Amino acid sequence: MGDTNGRVVAGGNATGNRLDQLNGPIDVLIDKETNSLIICDSRNRRVVRWSRRSGTTQGEIFIDNISCWGLAMDDQRYLYISDTDKHEVRRYQIEDKNGTIVAGGNGKGAGLNQLNIPTYIFIDQQQTVYVSDRGNHHVMKWNKGEKEGIVAAGGQGDGNALTQLSSPTGLFVDTLGTIYVADFGNHRVMRWPKGAKQGTVIVGGNGKGEGANQFYDPIGLSFDTHNNLYVVDNENNRVQRFSIE
Questions:
Q1: Is the pTM of this model over 0.70?
Q2: Which of 7, 77, 168, 210 could be joined to 132 by an S-S link, Cβ 3.0–4.6 Å?
């Protein structure tokens, strides 16, 4: 902590599709087992892996020809990737290139067995898949092995009521099943207790802006072990930290 300058650990060689380049990286996770970064390199339509060992100058292609957005890994090291073209989430073993559909995969739509531009995803310890279903303005929950999901947050169309979301993106679910979601179009972060019909605004919701209590298109979120919430405030080009009770 205390660093004022970051260090490039992947890419950094201008925009491009060489193995030492990235183009529109939109999500990343750390695979501790191999000490590597797994990156959704969105405009190159690929998922790449970069070793974290010093001296690494390029990545390797893990999965090619995929319109990836969100990445997640479960306790058994299965990798989950959302595909915004195929409107599905697949689960992959680390060396498996094909994967298995675990959510969606039935074309673009609003049915309980469909998704519409799935963005960020979260996997709990039971391998339940939570998906920010951006085009349907809700968060879907798919229990392991199920052919249909259930609406876990939103689901009342695009809007700014407490029962609604607008193009949801970043997602986190705690051990009680409470959902935290970046409500992109409403410039706020919502909290939805398990089974609730409406959520509460925990930060933002004060209109679009650059004030300390405002966002402009919040897109990603995560928590640290001290219950601090970090929000990627996209159009304000910043990351904000909030202490959450």
A1: yes
A2: 168
